Write the structure tokens for this entry.
Amino acid sequence: MENKHSITHVILTGGVGSRLWPLSRKSQPKQYLELFEGKSLFEMTVERNRNIADSIMVVGNSDNCHLSKKVLEKSNTSYIDIVESTPRNTAAAIAFAAFASDPEAILIVTPSDHIIDKMEEYEAAISDAIEKASKGYIVTFGIIPTKPETGYGYIERKGDDVISFREKPNQVTARDFISRGNFLWNSGMFCFKAGVLLEELKIYTPEIYEKSKIAWEANQNGNLDLELSLDIPSISIDYAVMERSKKIKVVSSTFVWSDLGSFESVYDYLITIGHPVDENGNMAIGTTNYTAFIGVKDTIFVYTDTANLILKKEFSQDVKSVYSKLERDKSDLLN
């Protein structure tokens, strides 16, 4: 870990967690909900990498930067704050972090809304990634799958070489991926030297490189200009760099990981920490009121002050359609 002094943990805090509505709202996205033994996912993300990285950088937006600040001030943590005026997807967000860093600095880029356990294995994976990044590779973290999950993207690999990135599959394709044995869940975590990432971005998506650079150079104390930001194409880092670069390596990991992107994954996690569930697999979230389930199995009841949600666990991915309808209706229930 000789590079420790030059390691920055970059936390991406965009996204509203639409599949976790009504718990997750625009004013309180899922990464700031204190649902996890009194802590939020964002706070757990900060703590997880505190001993690995020398500095913390948060790339957020004008809607949630005050929430990040509140958590970091509570723990008296200093950090570099980059505030996007409008969401431009992960390629631009990561470009801003790289432009804000020394070219030789190693960046560990993570979302702010994931659950990770088995810390020894996690730290071993990070160590492996840092070693690869120090040699000029761009490293992605792949999780050895435990089931044919349709809610995650996949990485096809041979050893630590990436053959392809695959979008979220249907159930049949997911089962095929698992049976083939060389597919990993795509965790959305990365590790690289800032300068290497920018070089590859410049080669493969020069428009994002140039326009992100212009926006970054005009920043005011880390705050980005709206007009210049709107000029940047909204593209994911996977599409902009990861699927094109010849410098990609994957670290295959066995730490426990979930993006908590659906109520099914929240349910599965809450079970592991002793959250009550009845004999038919039914669970209430968001209330300590006595809740009885009759004639149903594997059903989740989600309570909030202004809206409730009742769903069968296997239909968790469909919550986004409710969110989309409320968005079309310009409903206050999203705020």
